[in-house]
Amino acid sequence: MSGPETFNLLSPRTRTLAGLVLALSNFMVVLDLTIANVSVPHIAGNLGISGDQGTWIITSYAVAEAICVPLTGWLALRFGVVRTFIWAMIGFGFFSMMCGLSTTLGMIVAARLGQGICGGPIMPMSQTLLLRIFPPEMRPRAMGLWAMTTLLGPAMGPIVGGYISDNWSWHWIFFINLPIAALCVFAAMAMLRPVETDTAHQPIDKIGLCLLIFWIGCLQVMLDIGRDHDWFSDPLILTLAILAGIGFIVFIIWELTEEHPIVDLRVFRHIGFSSGVFTLALAFGAYFSSIVVIPQWLQMSMGYTATWSGIVTAFTAMAAVMSAPFAARFTGKVDPRIMISGAVFWLGCMTLWRAHWTSGIDFFGLALPQFVQGFAMPFFMIPLTTLTLGSVPPSETASAAGLQNFLRTMAIAIATSLVLTGWSDSQRVSRNELAGALQPDDAQRALSGMGMTTEQIRQTISNLVEQEAIAISVDYVFFISALVLFAAAVIVWLAPKPSGPVDTSAAH
């Protein structure tokens, strides 16, 4: 049964319990996007890999999720929404267990890929099922609960990940998913069977899917290993870049001519949608760069534990949860372009504020811009959905929502790689400049007068140069991110003002 009256098939009590389970499943998937960020130094140290290699744990999950999101509609139509949701949750639990059991970089990256592939459909599926089990008058409240889990996930991820890594073991940031996944699977089997959707044999764009995996895979591997191979002076990196470029061009041509494309690129013909999603990709990528850099800097150079670096990172999402109800109230009453542009400009100003951090900054100095930044997040995310989906006809809403989520997830993966590359290169340049500007004789005399040996003096100077070089490179990353955010605040004005009510039910 797939009509709008499906909500009558569940009792009010069952409906409420099912709604909580669906919100919990979404929370778990969003949490896993950031829970590993603060734990990368722990995982890298335990597996005997560099911090740069450790970031593959973040990017592999995001890339796999991005690739799988466009498949969600086909999977739901082919197997049914409830059945797809249950199997995706089983797969997510299994690969979470494999992540926790990993003993090598290859094993954990493979497991994170599996986790991302299974996690991709869970977000949109949970939203679709919420709309099916609640009557129209209760849907805004259900969507509000769902949106809160989407905002709370990134807030809790760094704190939960940091606490578990410091007090237990990094393996448990993945094992903790197992009981939640099991609860969601059994609850879905028990309560959601009556609202299963009809199935149909719809053709899948196999060539488009293969091309998508090919060019994204080449691009991401190039970005992840490029900094270790001196970029385009290495034939491997050059080959990957060429293959990614060719694959991307062929993918675009194929998708524009295919009757049932895996990614419907035709929606880009709507300027409102195009400007909105480019704003989203740029702003979300620049915002996520701080979530990647700050925990690693605080743990590697500033002496913070994973827990406290997670708390600093999470202040943004805490403020976002507080301001979300106000953003929802203004949406539909104020031109969404004003809200989006103002919010993204605010994010840029906060990022510019952080570009003046020093190695001597205290906890309050770190937390304040993070917290103030958070108030703008809902004013950016909520009206952006109104703008993008309001720019396409209803028949293309589902395709537009899927493409929007795909680009947002890809922005996270690509921004992570680019930011860590820029951070690493800037550290090397800053280190060389500081070493050249130092007056080693004066410093050695001063330290020698304090009773230090020659070896201790050399190590002290080296540590000081390294600490300052890392702080300068962090500021450089924030400065570039601020410029990207200011550009995104302008791009959104290319969109015409949306007219009429917008159906945001397909957004995810």
From TrEMBL:
SUPFAM superfamilies: MFS general substrate transporter. The chain crosses the membrane at residues 17-36, 56-77, 84-107, 143-164, 170-192, 204-223, 235-256, 277-298, 304-326, 338-355, 375-393, 405-424, 476-495. It is a multi-pass membrane protein. It is found in: Cell membrane. GO terms for molecular function: transmembrane transporter activity. The keyword Cell membrane applies. The keyword Membrane applies. Residues 18-500 form the Major facilitator superfamily (MFS) profile domain. Keywords: Cell membrane, Membrane, Transmembrane, Transmembrane helix, Transport. One of its GO terms (cellular component) is plasma membrane. Gene3D superfamilies: Multidrug resistance protein D. It comes from the Bacteria. Belongs to the major facilitator superfamily. EmrB family. This is Drug:H+ antiporter-2 (14 Spanner) (DHA2) family drug resistance MFS transporter. It comes from Sphingobium yanoikuyae ATCC 51230. The lineage of its organism: Bacteria, Pseudomonadati, Pseudomonadota, Alphaproteobacteria, Sphingomonadales.
